[in-house]
Amino acid sequence: MSKILKEEKAIVVFSGGQDSTTCLFWALEQFKEVVLVTFDYGQRHIKEIECAKAIANELGLEHHILDMALLNQLAPNSLTRSDIEVDEAIPDGKTAPNSLVEGRNMLFLTFAAVLAKGKDIRHIVTGVCETDFSGYPDCRDVFIKSLNVTLNLAMDYNFVIHTPLMWLDKSQTWELADKLGVMDIVYNKTLTCYNGEMGEGCGHCPACHLRKRGYEQYMERKQCMK
Ligand code: ZN
Predict the structure, then answer these.
(1) Percentage helix, strand, coil, to 5, in the chain?
(2) Distance from the CA of 195 to the CA of which of 3, 162, 202, 207 falls in 20 to 30 A?
(3) For all residues of the chain together, what is the average pLDDT?
């Protein structure tokens, strides 16, 4: 990463989960200053936002929590409505899981960009990832590049969307956290589980499956490298 970025600020789209927390620490290494934005869209477990707040507080970072409750009005789904069960199957990459909120990342990144421009910030960091593609079309690299152009045109500004996890699988995301020296924080203080259990999680939702499998793969690889 160029030295120039060290003199600039970035905003990180931050959910308090494994991916965005890893991105947050990545951004702290790349940029002079990091601001966080979390979207509150009536998650099943308010704990996710509590995790995000706790991490932001601990690091002493400016943290904005934006109310996106309208997402729930637009697309009732298993992540926002407690009366809809979360799919327990591991995503097959073909069918979208019922945890999908259509266009969620597009909306989040767009709102993050509006907030960022108001603060004179042009770098936006998001933990979206194509490798573990689980049916979310707005996580794909081609979409992010397209949105970047659209945002620049929409606001006549030179945004740069950074996606440090785009081509990493979950085990490589753990590896990145390890390289950044934050494995423990990511392991213990983030919430990825759809059923709202911190750290190791419930062990049987799709998010827990991916997280656990990635962790084990990385630990195995690390053993072999010794
Ligand atoms: Zn879980």
Answers:
(1) 45, 10, 40
(2) 162
(3) 87
